[in-house]
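Hey all, sorry for the wall of text incoming. These are the two entities for the joint prediction.
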Amino acid sequence: MTNADETVAPERGNTPIAECISTISEALERHDLAKVREVAAGLENPDLADVIEELAPEQRVELIEALGADFDFEVLTEVDEKVRDQISEALPNDVLAKAVTELDSDDAAYLLESLEADDRQEILDQLPQSDRAALERNLLYPGETAGRLMQADFVAVPPFWTVGQVIDFARDTEDLPETFSEIFVVDPGFHLLGSVNISRLLRTKRDVPINTIMEADRHMILATADQEQVARQFERYGLMAVPVVDSDERLVGVVTVDDVVEVIEQEADEDAKLLAGVGDERLSDSVREIAPPRFLWLLVNVLFAMVSASIIDLFGGSIEQMVALAVLMPIIASMGGNAGTQTMTVTVRALATKELSDMNVRRVALREVTVALINGVLFACLLSALAILWFGGAGLGVVIAIAIMINLLVAAVAGMLIPLGLQRLGFDPAVASTVFVTSLTDVVGFFAFLGLATFWLL
Amino acid sequence: MTNADETVAPERGNTPIAECISTISEALERHDLAKVREVAAGLENPDLADVIEELAPEQRVELIEALGADFDFEVLTEVDEKVRDQISEALPNDVLAKAVTELDSDDAAYLLESLEADDRQEILDQLPQSDRAALERNLLYPGETAGRLMQADFVAVPPFWTVGQVIDFARDTEDLPETFSEIFVVDPGFHLLGSVNISRLLRTKRDVPINTIMEADRHMILATADQEQVARQFERYGLMAVPVVDSDERLVGVVTVDDVVEVIEQEADEDAKLLAGVGDERLSDSVREIAPPRFLWLLVNVLFAMVSASIIDLFGGSIEQMVALAVLMPIIASMGGNAGTQTMTVTVRALATKELSDMNVRRVALREVTVALINGVLFACLLSALAILWFGGAGLGVVIAIAIMINLLVAAVAGMLIPLGLQRLGFDPAVASTVFVTSLTDVVGFFAFLGLATFWLL
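and here's what came out:
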């Protein structure tokens, strides 16, 4: 049973996705629809999404048509944007309208939004009233907010019902979400009074009034709240489901932790990528999409590198007299860049996870400067010994020692101040911090080393 | 109601944590225990954990004693390791034993593990049999595995029970987990037959047999599986709760998505930090803890920088003749480093999220090389124009153009091959990729530029 991953494989067993793709593709060519259905039935939605992405455009539509009613349109929320656009253009609007009624409202909103305005309206017009209302509640809110992330279908009951009435309501009502973990208790104006986890409901006798077992919700989210803040709140307080309210404090939906998992992953991923100047790239993006932003990032780098080059030019005469300076100067610049990147990464991540606050910023700053001083002294000894052994002359050793200490201190201070400053100015601290920090340590490194050498040695 | 965060604040309202800390600290000094309890009652566990971390060591224990039975020991799983050690040493073992019985088994295991071996045994001996069994099941498995992450308390029923019997069992049994979302159906040997989401249970008539509504679990996790793989599976398949089985396929626990949220955040965080050489640092670490690993990372950098310096030294004569080479060479090296970091970051993240696989690695490699060629040509034009304007002489322009194209191509190839190679060798691709890539582009940049200049221009 143990496979390479040490987790137990889902039903498709150990068949690699690549194999499913070729099997399905060949079966489609042969019009062997039974085979297509058989392979697809063994796949879960994210796997089927991978298959669809790799098929040729016309085969994608053939596959969906072959699966007919067995095709879960949630799969389309998992495929790449371009693939989704291609498929939703190829499928007739009434098929899409049927798909939308079967989806959770957040997934339906996501799917609808990728359509052209007139198609979207035509599909909305075809929906039953209750589906349309929930969906429009999601569409009210812009992307990346709690209102878009939330499930607008939820179970809400009045406070005077008993546990038995709630259970009977759940048993008799067709139009409830497929799974839910909280029952919300609301007043006639849909203001939230409290909630009951259904495991609590299950364990309570039928004649108990619901308002005696409900708990006040310590956490509520405004529908306009940014999804990243929502994610932080879930993570910090270990939440499973949180009610979403509008500006009049009326219950409009519920965000569950599984909706948030993807947001958390995305945000952390984004930070790592922003630091390298490849912010919103996806692996599926084409050359045309990624080349221009990467060009811009490198261009900013060139502009800063020209500043460092001008510093070197300033001391061109010294280099002509003492070529050892040209040999050693990149070492000082690169040390500063690396040390600055260390402090900066720690700062950026601590800001992102809200660990760094006014409460501890002084302690962290003191720690970073102390580390810079300690490592500065150690590398000053090491590099001056290296310089003396390589080129002779104690003077060069002293100059490189002082230059490296200055540069590591500047790296520590800039590594903290630049992300903090960017955040205070309202930017994401991960954006462009790298280029600022490494450019500054280049300039300071070259200037300190070449400047000191020029005035003392030549 | 709207506060700055646009989410609705928990009960403590807008009182900043810093204020709670000083209020509690002052109240403890005055022995005003009523005030202490009042402020603490308004705090949720993660907030109370923050307060405890910032208090003086003796005040931490005073606070816990003041709260008495109101203190939720889950708070101790949220404080920093050193703070937890200090508190658990200061508290008597019988208080800790009582605490452990009240915790979920995964939290209890986490807490117990931080104790010294003899204290741990003494506490285990004081536990009731059922608590000890669950706890020991967690402690069986090493850290960072599913077995440690799982909740070893769960609700399991035989297949021949009806829905009504299950509900009555849940109502009448004291010793169930506080909240649960799945009922597991097992045979007498505790082998998993299927599971029922409790919202499904709630909506089904009492006389229906449970085995007619249970669903086969498409996902199971081996207790020995790595927590990162578990997290990926939850994320990919949007899972809420997954049963954990031992090597004999017996049900031993359940991992829920809220346990996984922290793992996902940690793993993404780790990648961003590993790339900068500050892998397992925490913000609360002391200077003594972070200085040595940072020193080592910088030392590796110095060793690689010496290789670049030797390349420059090799062409010392050329630099003496033409100081423009020393001015321009850092531009080429830094361009290569930045372009290489772009490709490398994309590769490292795509490997981490399992987006990059044998299926698409050729397409991605082709894309990266194409981008390098396009940007290479653009920067070749730009930099050769710059060089000619700055220093005159078309020769220098041609040399810098060729050098930058070579370096951007090498950056793209190395940015993919180095993380892929590290992974194939069994290392985390994020470790040390940066230093390898940027050192290589430094060496190649200096060598190509100075070498071409020496043979063509001098």
